[in-house]
Write a structure and sequence with these properties.
CATH topology of the largest domain: Rossmann fold
Structural class: alpha/beta
Largest sheet: 5 strands, parallel
Shape: elongated
Number of domains: 4
Helix content: 25-40%
Number of helices: 18
Radius of gyration: 27 Å
Strand content: 15-25%
Length: 500
């Protein structure tokens, strides 16, 4: 099979700004060659077995030289593999994508270019700066603030730039900020011209500083403002006072760790990100098949013979119904079985498969489900199929048997420790800490503790419910934020109430 390389833009940082085409490329890649990305969530889209190679291009710190990257792409494509060269922003805007494409073409190899949204355009917009405006001119100039080290002299015509009307945008210029602004002023630019710099644009770490050509370098040094950042020069910055929107959200500047498995984390990550948090996806566990796959399949196949089907987790719902529809073509094959769910999240998962839970307790824990059965149903001599993970608490089975029900356990999955650091979040947590770590089960608390990471001073723990809280306290966390409603929505509300 002939190989191919997709030179794909990873966008400016917000995963929601990645194109559908780029995501499709990542999902089918045999080899993923990536720079230091603003969002490591993109790496989780790769299929199992994908070879991920960090070439680490960030400012002066390169894991591989450009020549080595070029050679790597040629080597992998020549092996007949689907290679995705993932580059921040757009690969053809100061991304050296043109050079990589030329090397592949010279080698007679197939490639495609997948444009991305550049931080040059998205960054100012997320800072509340319109790039064109009828009141401030209709001209837009983009230039690089970085000069290649092998050039004998600068290629930027500051005399021309200083006289150019309209808005000016520059990338990769923080390290040379004082030189850039001094050159513009020296060649005739008004020292009072407004300038804004936005760091980590479109992410939860976004920060914008403002000033003038005369004083912005001092401000950046005082605030230790570092790359990566996009700069905007021009009177259009005055519009920020009217349309600034991204940096006013309730969790702005808060770094929050999500410990759920990769397949479960997206909902919580999305909600926290939308509220302005800098989210670290640090999955401490993953969902694996049960040891007894045949036993699970037999339980699913026999569901129509039971009076009740009980779910105590969303994972159980997904595993069960995926297996059910793989076995039966007609939803009516489930028979007349009634369905119970431990809480609204589990009930919502059931509803996504076009079934409705007949019983949902007010207290969204196993004990609450038992109480509701006791109060509302007579299950004596009724058969119940409980869909659960391995190593689950046995309180549901014992409690229902005490109500004289006949309980069979359908083990749908097992929870195992995540041994990899697929997003690099563990390293980021160890280096920079966090304001809060979320725990959505006692298992996440236990597995996070097993990582042996130092708990940062001032960092808080947030728990989805009392069972998880009890485990956290057992592990030494005395000050735990607990969701009043034991769901993802309740957890997010508790976090906002505490941190905003």
């Amino acid at each position: 099979m002939n190989g191919i390389c997709y030179l794909a833009g990873a966008g400016p940082g917000d995963p929601g700004l990645v194109t559908l085409k780029a995501r499709q490329c990542i999902e089918q890649a045999d080899v993923l060659v990536y720079d230091a990305l603003s969002s490591t969530e993109l790496l989780t889209w790769a299929k199992p077995g994908c070879e991920k190679i960090d070439v680490g291009k960030r400012a002066a710190r390169h894991t591989l030289s450009q020549d080595q990257i070029n050679a790597l792409l040629v080597e992998k494509v020549s092996e007949g593999k689907i290679v995705v060269r993932l580059k921040g922003g757009d690969p053809m805007i100061f991304g050296r994508g043109g050079e990589e494409a030329a090397v592949l073409a010279a080698a007679g190899l197939k490639f495609e270019i997948v444009p991305g949204i550049s931080s040059a355009f998205a960054g100012p917009v997320y800072a509340g700066i319109p790039l064109t405006h009828r009141d401030y001119g209709s001209q837009l100039t983009v230039f690089s603030g970085h000069e290649a080290s092998d050039k004998q002299e600068g290629s930027i015509d500051y005399a021309h730039l200083a006289k150019t009307e309209g808005t000016k945008i520059f990338l990769m210029g923080v390290a040379r900020l004082r030189e850039i602004t001094s050159q513009l002023i020296e060649h005739g630019a008004d020292p009072t011209t407004p300038i804004a710099l936005t760091r980590w644009a479109t992410t939860g770490r976004q920060k914008t500083i403002k000033g003038t050509l005369a004083d912005i370098a001092d401000t950046a040094e005082e605030q230790q403002f570092k790359a990566p950042a996009v700069g905007v020069i021009g009177n259009i910055i005055k519009e920020m006072n009217n349309i600034e929107w991204y940096e006013n959200r309730p969790l702005k500047g808060k770094r929050i760790v999500v410990t759920r498995s990769q397949e479960q984390a997206s909902g919580l990550v999305s909600e926290l990100t939308a509220l302005g948090a800098d989210v670290l996806e640090l999955p401490v566990l993953r969902i694996a098949d049960p040891v007894d796959k045949l036993g699970f399949a037999e339980g699913v196949a026999a569901v129509h013979t039971y009076d009740w089907l009980v779910f105590s987790s969303t994972n159980g719902v997904r595993r069960f119904f995926d297996a059910f529809y793989a076995t039966y073509a007609d939803a009516r094959s489930i028979g007349g079985v009634k369905i119970a769910a431990v809480g609204p999240g589990t009930a919502a998962a059931i509803k996504s498969y076009r079934f409705v839970a007949d019983l949902v307790p007010e207290r969204h824990i196993a004990e609450g489900l038992l109480e509701t059965f006791q109060e509302q149903e007579d299950v004596e001599n009724q058969t119940i199929l409980w869909v659960r993970p391995e190593n689950a608490r046995d309180i549901l089975a014992k409690g229902l048997e005490e109500q004289r029900a006949i309980v069979d356990e359908c083990i749908a999955y097992r929870i195992v420790a995540e041994t990899d650091d697929p997003t690099g979040a563990a390293e980021r947590f160890a280096e920079g800490g966090a304001d809060l770590v979320t725990f959505t089960s006692s298992s996440t608390a236990s597995y996070f503790n097993d990582l042996g990471l130092t708990w940062p001073e001032g960092c808080q723990a947030a728990s989805i419910g009392p069972i998880t809280t009890a485990k956290l306290k057992e592990l030494g966390h005395s000050n735990v934020i607990e969701a009043e409603t034991h769901s993802i929505e309740g957890l997010v509300k508790a976090i906002v109430d505490e941190l905003s």
